[in-house]
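Batch job 17 of 40 flagged for manual review because the log was empty.
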Amino acid sequence: MDKPIGTWLLYWPCAWGITMAAYSSALPVTSWAWNLALFGTGALVMRGAGCTINDMWDRKIDQKVERTKLRPLASGEIVPFQALSFLGLQLSVGLGILTQLNWYSIFLGASSLSLVIAYPLMKRITYWPQAVLGLAFNWGALLGSSAVLGHCDWAVALPLYAGSVAWTIAYDTIYAHQDKTDDIHAGVKSTALLFADKTRPILAGFSTSFVGLLALSGWLNSQGPAFYLLSVGGAAAHLAWQLRTADLETRESCWKVFKSNRDLGAIVFSGLAVDYALLSAGLM
């Protein structure tokens, strides 16, 4: 709750997937709104569970870093068993939300838990933990489709999912640049350390991939003009602004640009929502 950006970044791919499926199936507006609210609650709960898992894995690493040593587990304010008990509560609530969906979606949603648990370990193993985060954080692009349709429309959902993973790598690399000194001290890896002074052109490639795959997903879903103007065009413009303005050597700038991805998610959603609203009103 303190820094809701993580919840927004988890939620937006869900909202995109739901709205694209609602558009293709002419879903009633009340059902669309119910799914958006349900997934919003789920995003809040599961982002919290992810934070708990991360802090449990990173307790000893956090103790070495000035910025993180006062976290509850690292400081000893709570003990691992208390964290595990709290995680059990969070996951129980998440399961309760998941069971509101169809069986296909229940199994699809549950299958992402291994990624959520494994992600915090990846920074010890590979310079690409951001890719694993992307696989976990954007599962909602698939789940949103199946929640509405009763199955996943893979032709539409997979490009959306793959593009969203590229988006996550881009924004989380910017986030990781603010922590790169701490990461070196703690002995953990990230794409910020891997890309180093080549970060900007590499992120331009990931950003282009996101925009292109987003457009492909919309084309396969027969989206209307609002999607291409607002969602695709708006995302391209916003990502260009991010790459142009981000100072990768300044913590404040990295945080500002990272946090602005909440707005990028809203921009993409706006075009999808306009298309769906026009369809629901019989204007398309």
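Reviewer: the log was empty due to a logging misconfiguration, but the result itself is present. Residues 26 and 280 are 7 Å apart (CA to CA). Unflagging and moving on to job 18.
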